[in-house]
């Protein structure tokens, strides 16, 4: 239904898709601009940074396509229309995901995948079976980790109804952070996104194995393969948070 | 009357306290991420764009401070204006004994002032406490900076007003909103300071109206440019864009049939 509704104004839809492709591509243009001035950033070359970028954006794009509508949750609670979702005989999470489902978000996945493909072709890697296998695993686990962040953010919004932007700090902020090498950031920040919000497992840690780079904050070498486990744990925690949030939800009554 | 409209714009945004706190948090997080990438970049190439590291850091936090103030990505008064045009409620505004453009400008100035105080100052102060910044110690640059901010607000509004009027013809604002977002982020210098853009591209982006929004205030604050030159640049764009908005507005009200509802 939401797909059909967005097709009603055709010119606008086309501009929207192109716009979406450009908006998400801008981060990469920013990186290209930086590399037009220097040869490496934090000791990483352009193909290596592009590899990080492609992984981060593709994984985030998938999560965003499925659950990106979460940020309208606060508005729905304020105007009371969230109650409608609660009485319908379908999982609330699925309904929120489908709410204002926007096909234009395919733009981000496409753009991320293009950069990822370019990076895979131009980066200097001694490929092995494990490394080849790790790439799709990273994308899927990464999408799951980002999805968990979206759901946890939605649960948080049940408590803090007007604070959708806090979620943006972790979702959009997270994907931006992961587009740059960990060597760029302070130790404490890297520790935070490894152990507190384990975004580092989306790309930094497994990519260190693929690229033959030192692991961030001296993690053991098996950590490169821990992404699926981390993803499962994150989803379980986020699911629990979401259920707790739903149980404690009080309608505005309007 | 326009002062009352501006005060209304201020109060309206001041109502959303949780949203303001959330915005402060988000701008601070993005500021931290950007500062580290800029420091890495300036480490590789010191004095890129004529800035030293402290100036690059100042630029980042200024960008985070002005991001909501100048509605760099859109989302100011033009958002409501587009909605009113789409639903046809604009007809009511046209009946009012007030100038349409000035009415919306006043509301947007009120909004900008609140976003500056409520949302901009704290990330900037956070940056100043935790990172080395290049801030002037005398009063004059701060005064000149205030003037550039005011002019930047008008230029920013004038661009968004033009974009909003396009909805008279397009009916739906989704697409143009995206264009606004792209151009705003890229040409205002949220991605990278405009003076660090290479070659021809750099020369072009530095004369576009978006340069009036972050680049000019930043350069005035840090003493990188002559304030009078910056004022002239900003004022010229403000006048040109407001005039264009006026032309488009009269074209729209003459030929467009307002949507009924």
Could you explain the architecture of this structure?
The complex is a heterodimer of chains A (254) and B (261). Chain A is mostly helical and 254 residues long. In chain A, 69% of the residues lie in helices and 0% in strands. Chain A is built from twelve helices and no strands. The mean pLDDT of chain A is 85. With 261 residues, chain B is mainly alpha-helical. Helix content of chain B is 75%, strand content 0%. Chain B contains twelve helices and no strands. In chain B, α4 runs parallel beside α7 and α6 packs across α7. Classes of the chains: A mainly alpha (254), B mainly alpha (261). At the A-B interface, α2 and α9 of A face α2 and α9 of B.
Set down the secondary structure blueprint.
The complex is a heterodimer of chains A (254) and B (261).
Chain A: H1 2-6, H2 10-37, H3 46-67, H4 73-78, H5 82-87, H6 92-98, H7 106-122, H8 129-159, H9 164-178, H10 187-196, H11 204-211, H12 227-247
Chain B: H1 2-14, H2 17-44, H3 53-69, H4 77-87, H5 90-95, H6 100-130, H7 139-165, H8 167-170, H9 174-188, H10 199-205, H11 215-221, H12 227-255
Structural descriptors:
heterodimer; A: 254 residues; mainly alpha; B: 261 residues; 0% strand; transmembrane (chain B); ABC-2 family transporter protein (chain B)
């Amino acid at each position: 239904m939401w797909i059909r509704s967005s097709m009603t104004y055709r010119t606008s839809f086309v501009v929207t898709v192109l716009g979406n492709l450009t908006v998400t591509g801008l981060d990469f243009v920013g990186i290209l601009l930086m590399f037009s001035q220097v040869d490496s950033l934090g000791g990483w070359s352009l193909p290596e940074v592009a590899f990080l970028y492609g992984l981060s954006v593709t994984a985030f794009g998938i999560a965003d396509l499925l659950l990106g509508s979460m940020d309208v949750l606060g508005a729905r609670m304020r105007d009371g229309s969230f109650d409608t979702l609660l009485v319908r005989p379908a999982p609330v999470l699925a309904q929120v995901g489908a709410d204002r489902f926007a096909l234009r978000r395919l733009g981000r996945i496409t753009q991320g995948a293009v950069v990822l493909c370019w990076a895979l072709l131009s980066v200097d890697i001694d490929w092995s079976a494990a490394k080849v296998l790790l790439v799709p695993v990273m994308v899927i686990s990464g999408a799951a980790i980002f999805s968990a962040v979206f759901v946890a953010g939605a649960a948080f919004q049940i408590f803090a109804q007007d604070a959708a932007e806090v979620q943006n700090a972790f979702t959009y902020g997270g994907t931006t952070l992961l587009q740059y090498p960990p060597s760029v950031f302070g130790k404490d920040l890297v520790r935070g996104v490894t152990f507190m919000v384990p975004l580092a497992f989306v790309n930094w840690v497994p990519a260190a194995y693929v690229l033959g780079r030192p692991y961030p904050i001296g993690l053991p070498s098996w950590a490169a393969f821990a992404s699926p486990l981390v993803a499962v744990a994150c989803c379980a925690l986020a699911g629990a948070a979401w259920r707790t949030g739903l149980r404690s939800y009080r309608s505005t009554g309007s | 009357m326009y002062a009352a409209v501006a005060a209304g714009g201020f109060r309206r945004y001041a109502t959303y306290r949780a949203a303001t706190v959330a915005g402060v948090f988000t701008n601070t997080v993005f500021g931290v991420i950007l500062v580290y990438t800029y420091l890495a970049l300036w480490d590789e190439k010191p004095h890129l764009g004529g800035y030293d590291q402290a100036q690059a850091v100042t630029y980042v936090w200024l960008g985070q401070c002005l991001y909501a103030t100048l509605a760099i990505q859109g989302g100011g008064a033009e958002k409501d204006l587009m909605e009113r045009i789409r639903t046809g409620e604009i007809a009511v505004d046209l009946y009012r004994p007030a100038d349409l453009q000035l009415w919306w400008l006043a509301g947007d100035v009120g909004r900008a002032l609140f976003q500056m105080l409520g949302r901009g100052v704290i990330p900037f102060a956070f940056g100043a406490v935790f990172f080395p910044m290049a801030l002037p110690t005398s009063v004059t640059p701060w005064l000149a900076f205030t003037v550039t901010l005011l002019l930047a607000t008008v230029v920013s509004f004038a661009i968004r007003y033009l974009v909003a009027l396009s909805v008279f013809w397009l009916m739906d604002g989704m697409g143009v909103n995206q264009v606004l977002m792209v151009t705003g982020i890229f040409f205002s210098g949220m991605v990278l300071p405009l003076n660090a853009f290479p070659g021809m591209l750099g020369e072009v982006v530095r004369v576009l109206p978006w340069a009036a929004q972050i680049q000019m205030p930043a350069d005035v604050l840090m003493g990188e440019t002559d304030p009078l030159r910056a004022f002239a640049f900003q004022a010229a764009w403000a006048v040109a864009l407001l005039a264009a908005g006026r032309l488009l507005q009269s074209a729209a009200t003459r030929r467009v049939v307002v949507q009924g509802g």
